[in-house]
Amino acid sequence: MLGRVERLAQNDGAMTSEIIGKSLTTEEIRRAGLFGMFLAERGFITGSVQDRVAASDARRIDTALSEIRGRPWEKAIRQYADELSGPVKKLSLRSRRVYLRAAVELMTFAHVEGMSELTDRHIKHFLRSKPGHRASLFPWLSFVRERSGHELCIPKKAVRKEPTVKAVANGVGHLVSAIKAAPTKEARRALVAKLLSILYGVPLEHVLSLERKNMEELNGKVRLRFDDDWVTVDAPIDDLLSEAVSYSANNMGSARLFPGRMMNDGLSVGAVQHYLQKLSNA
User: Fold this and answer.
1) Higher pLDDT among residues 156 and 21, named by residue
2) What is the pTM of this model?
3) Are residues 80 and 143 in contact, defined by beta-carbon separation less than 8 angstroms?
4) Would you say 150 and 162 are in contact if contact means Cβ atoms under 8 Å apart?
5) Alpha helices of the chain — where are they, by DSSP H?
6) I need a labelling partner for 80 at 20 to 30 A (CA). Which of 86, 124, 180, 226 fits?
7) According to the lineage, what is the superkingdom (predicted)?
8) Per-residue pLDDT tens over the stretch 29-60
């Protein structure tokens, strides 16, 4: 990683936060551990993780558009990218990147000259190899229909049975046990965040963005504020939460309830998934 940073710094004349942003992705910085913390402490990583993720998404959009130059469907994709970035859609950079990537990969997979040549068969075979793009393809197919009148459909997804109350309860119980047995404070903190997300039906990203002002302990009760609503955290989750927060109280003076490794950062979704994966493999 340092070699990549140095090579760019030599080309541009000096190592700056911009150079770091160009050479290392947000995920690479997180995985860099002590090296990433060193860069942050020296002022080479600035802003919050949300700012860096947005900048990374913007660069990846630009890269995707530069890689389709000369393709017969380049103009259509660029028009699609412009529509995604318009004020009507009000999409986040991440959503724009994901939707654009799905459209580009489908067109590349289909080996067609234009969007009017796409068929339902192309989509069916594409989703067999890239099922993760399923939801991201709907905006592109809507764009194709609006611009060319070409109707396409995505094959129906197999209906999954909703988990029973007993299954959910067992999953929560397993997670509580895992938190109590977790070998490190970092693992406990990550698993507590996931537990709160499950119990209160709040997106994990929202839980990880909570600040210390969103939690209060009064008369032996622990409360959390999600948006404008305060909820009481019942036992034994209240003790697990209080313990996890006390672990992070001295984390570089962070205002975050679940701070990450870098200054101003909250714990990332990727970090939580890392600990969940370790739990699954145990």
Assistant:
1) 156
2) 0.57
3) yes
4) no
5) 2-12, 17-23, 26-31, 34-41, 49-66, 74-84, 93-110, 120-129, 134-148, 165-181, 185-200, 204-208, 237-247, 269-281
6) 124
7) Bacteria
8) 767 767 777 777 777 776 666 676 777 788 88
CA–CA gap between residue 240 and residue 45 (Å, rounded): 32
- 209-216's contacts with Cβ under 8 Å and 24+ in sequence apart are 209/256, 209/266, 210/256, 210/257, 210/258, 210/266, 211/255, 211/256, 211/257, 212/245, 212/255, 212/256, 212/257, 213/255, 214/257, 215/241, 215/245, 215/257
Between CA 34 and CA 131 the distance in angstroms is 36
Enter the tokens of residue 148.
């060319």
Distance between CA atoms of residues 215 and 277, nearest Å: 28
Residue 153 near residue 120, CB atoms below 8 Å = yes
List, in sequence order, every residue forming a beta bridge with 232; answer none if it has no partner. Answer: 223
Cis peptide before 236 (omega within 30 of 0): yes
Entry field: residues in the chain: 282
What pLDDT sits at residue 207?
A: 87
**What b/e string do you get for 48-87 counting C-beta neighbours within 10 Å, with b at 16 or more?**
bbeebbbbbbeebbeebeeebeeeebeebbeebbebbeee
| Percent of the chain's residues with pLDDT above 70 | 80
Determine the pLDDT at residue 136: 92
Residue 106: the pLDDT is 94
Q: How far is CA 22 from CA 19, 25, 59, in A?
A: 5, 8, 8
Whole-number Å distance between alpha carbons of 206 and 45: 23
pLDDT, residue 56, reads: 77
Return the closest-CA partner of residue 210 out of 198, 224, 223, 199.
224
Coil, strand or helix at 136:
helix
Q: Does 209 have pLDDT greater than 90?
A: no
